[in-house]
Write a structure and sequence with these properties.
about 350 residues; alpha/beta; Rossmann fold; 7-stranded parallel β-sheet; 3-stranded mixed β-sheet; 13 helices; about 45% helix; about 15% strand
């Protein structure tokens, strides 16, 4: 059995669904169900005894201690985090509470539980921390992609909070011997992505005939990773990664934001034409966000060299699957676009 934190969010729910599609090993899924956590993501697992959902906070030490003592998982896979840069600019406190304090509490609970194990159980236990390439800062156009040895230079409250959590995980390994693994991923996209992030926001706005807001000149470059490839990379590291090591997981897909938006528009023109004209007519350049990193790119050669992992999807195949998923799941989109979501979109974009 494994314990997954944040398993009702975007990446976490994809991981849970993929895990149980390939394995009968049960999952204890701990999620606080904040705005981005959605039980509907896991509806296909209702009644499945392999999936035990627990509504709770990683910062609740008594709850985490009880789950570890009762279920005795062989691994913790830690996704739970606040993850939206724009939200971190508007309200950094929640990011410090979840990403820093929550990770600290989880590490301490894991350390205490690990200390009760003996022999093979103790040797096999892993604490897998899922992080981001944003901890490395921003790259110049000609800089090589981020390697695991790059210095940390976070530039937003979000990335600073994730950098802090990475450092805590490293310290708990070197100080206490806790058997940890860390993965730093590039920008994920795919099914079940909450529509505050670039790709799902462009899809849902386009279908609604709303403006497609592009920050600044749209030339910010990201490395795009299909979420199911990310899940397979995590499984590879959990199965064979060296204790104490960090592995970068990337998609080998560097693209400028404006090119992403134009690609989404072209796919929608093909799959769901708008009688009013091409969706690209809706592209609207808006004021850039403060401290916007110019370029991220991941060097994923270490995970390929050591564990034989490479992404299965190209951007062309992954983005087509993603757009089709949103077209096929309009009810899911409508359900997550609550009053709170509309309030957030208004707060973040109206003044731009």
């Amino acid at each position: 059995m494994i314990l997954v934190t944040g398993g009702a969010g975007f990446i976490g729910s994809n991981f849970v669904l993929d895990w149980l599609a390939q394995s009968d090993e049960p999952i204890i899924n701990l999620d606080a169900l904040t705005y981005a956590g959605n039980r509907a993501n896991l509806a296909s697992l209702d009644g499945d005894a392999r999936h035990v959902f627990v509504h709770g906070d990683i910062g609740d030490r008594a709850l985490v201690d009880g789950l570890l003592a009762t279920h005795r998982p062989r691994a913790i896979v830690h996704f739970a985090a606040e993850s939206h840069v724009d939200r971190s600019i508007h309200g950094p406190g929640a990011f410090m509470k979840t990403n820093v304090d929550g990770t600290f509490t989880l590490l301490e609970a894991a350390r205490a539980f690990w200390g009760t194990l003996d022999g093979a159980e103790k040797a096999a236990f892993r604490f897998h921390h899922v992080s981001t390439d944003e901890v490395y800062g921003s790259l110049k156009p000609t800089d090589p992609p981020f390697a695991e040895t790059n210095p940390y230079e976070p530039n937003s409250p979000y990335s600073a909070s994730k950098a802090a959590s990475d450092h805590l995980v490293r310290a708990w390994h070197h100080t206490y011997g806790l058997p940890v693994l860390t993965t730093n991923c590039s920008n994920n996209y795919g099914p079940l992505h909450f529509p505050e992030k670039l790709i799902p926001l462009m899809i849902v706005n386009a279908l609604a005939g709303k403006p497609l807001p592009v920050y600044g000149d749209g030339q910010q470059i990201r490395d795009w990773l299909y979420v199911k490839d990310h899940c397979s990379g995590i499984r590879a590291v959990l199965a064979g990664g060296r204790v104490g090591e960090t592995y970068n997981i990337g998609g080998w897909n560097e693209m400028a934001n404006i090119d992403i938006v134009r690609t989404v528009c072209a796919l929608l023109d093909e799959l769901r034409p708008d009688p009013a004209g091409p969706y690209a007519r809706l592209i609207t350049y808006v004021t850039d966000r403060p401290g916007h990193d110019r370029r991220y790119a991941i060097d994923a050669r270490k995970i390929e060299r050591e564990l034989g992992w490479r992404p299965a999807e190209t951007f062309a195949t992954g983005i087509r699957k993603t757009v089709q998923w949103y077209l096929d799941n309009a009810a899911w989109v409508a359900d997550v676009q609550s009053g709170a979501y509309k309030d957030w979109i208004g707060a973040n974009y109206s003044a731009r």
